[in-house]
Amino acid sequence: MNEPILTTASGIPVDDNQNSLSAGPRGPLLLQDFHLIEKLQRFNRERIPERVVHAKGSGAFGTFTVTEDITALTKAKLFSEIGKKTETFLRFSTVGGERGSADTERDPRGFAMRFYTEEGNWDLVGNNTPVFFIKDAIKFPDFIHTQKRDPQSNLKSPNMMFDFWSKAPESLHQVTILFSERGTPDGYRHMHGFGSHTYSMVNAAGERVYVKWHIKTRQGVKNLSADEAGRLAGSDPDYAQRDLFNAIAAGNFPQWDVKLQVATEQQLVDWEARTGWNPFDVTKVWPHGDFPLRLVGVFELNRNPDNYHADVEQVAFSPANAVPGLGYSPDKMLQGRLFGYHDAALYRVGTNHQHLPVNAARCPVYNQQRDGEMVVGNGGAARNYATVVAAGLPDSGMGNGEPPLALSGPAGRYDGRGKEDDFTQAGNLFRLMTASEKLSLCNNLAGPLSQVDADILQRQLGHFDKADPAYGAGVRAALAARGANVA
């Protein structure tokens, strides 16, 4: 049966639902892409009042301390001297589950960090994985729908999940991580965090480099077996939240090393020419052999919130919150998040969510924004408009001293599917695993795959084969052990 023609909410036909409108193949994205904007806006307004994603969360306050000099890379004042401390807030979360879901479900974990700097709030909003399932924000609402509940049965559906993943081989790298032992971390203290996207830094001379953030736990990585995670989901669904709160209350403050991978634009151009991988593709990692980690500082959580709702539930992060010296990249998923997160906060928490203590900057704030619900202060007697400045000012690049970003190519929707390598890095990850880790991965995948339609199963098995023949063979063996027909 042919599906009806996809349209906007106003009935306008959509000719491409797979690729955002970008300035050249690499972006950035264009605001005129109304279909993308409508999808993200409509998606952000699907739930009242809990978050559409990352609904179940835990959080705490802490400090970030600079231990290494990176002033040659960035002019951001929070890195200005060794030993400097910045107040922080960190929210952990599961991604797909509702607010009452279990902490131990197989799911990525949100790892959202806020730095209350003297130049405003910097939000590093990432996950406990270095990659993601998709590379273009236009697919995000559809992907998350597959992780939620079937609209008819209201049940989680492996068929929905693997129907999407099997048709989006770019997801294989993240799927491999999700169904490995890393898919069920042992609490929040024993997992790494990642910025995942490629970000940028600008130094005092106006020179730009690109970076990837890695937040490495000092407590050691620990994961739960599938059986233990399932047992805890029934006996203690708040296991991770309880562990974090009690550890901080007892003075056992968890810490993470904050590290960076750094590359110049030319280094990324040369690396892409050698590997064929787009350095701004969030489904890919930068290998440490090519771009080694360098230490920046240490992050510590040392204070529980006095009120969960006031801080953990009302905190509103946005990767668009970047202070001078820190910036973005042409990553298409990041570009969509720059809009989507702030828009979600406007809807979920309110027009003036930045007035709430957990969201308020710790430095002076001055703008012409006024009125709206739950306003605090409202600017007093200050005027509510900005005076027009006379012409003749020098060009300011991208603002905050960041140099202009060169763009190229005609605006259009560029489809890289079938032309890009979605399998090598997933295969590399599989080959790094021990025999027991590979067995666990294959067994974890066999559970939901034994419940999907035959055509979806065969399509997904084909992706495993392309990553590594042993990967496909291992999943087939695990399926056969469950009595599934894999012929």
UniProtKB/TrEMBL annotation:
Binding site for heme: 341
Protein name: catalase
InterPro entries for this protein: Catalase, Catalase_3, Catalase_AS, Catalase_clade1/3, Catalase_core, Catalase_immune_responsive, Catalase_sf
EC number from the UniProt entry: 1.11.1.6
Subunit structure: Homodimer.
Record-annotated active site: 54, 127
Cofactor(s) required, per the database record: heme
CC annotations in GO: cytoplasm
Organism placement in taxonomy: Bacteria, Pseudomonadati, Pseudomonadota, Betaproteobacteria, Burkholderiales
Annotated ranges, domain Catalase core: 7-394
GO biological process: hydrogen peroxide catabolic process; response to hydrogen peroxide
Reaction(s) catalysed by this chain's protein: 2 H2O2 = O2 + 2 H2O
Keyword terms, alphabetized: Heme, Hydrogen peroxide, Iron, Metal-binding, Oxidoreductase, Peroxidase
Keyword Lipid biosynthesis listed: no
UniProt GO MF annotations: catalase activity; heme binding; metal ion binding
Annotated transmembrane regions: none
SMART domains: Catalase
Naturally occurring in which organism (per UniProt): Massilia eurypsychrophila
UniProt key word Ligase: no
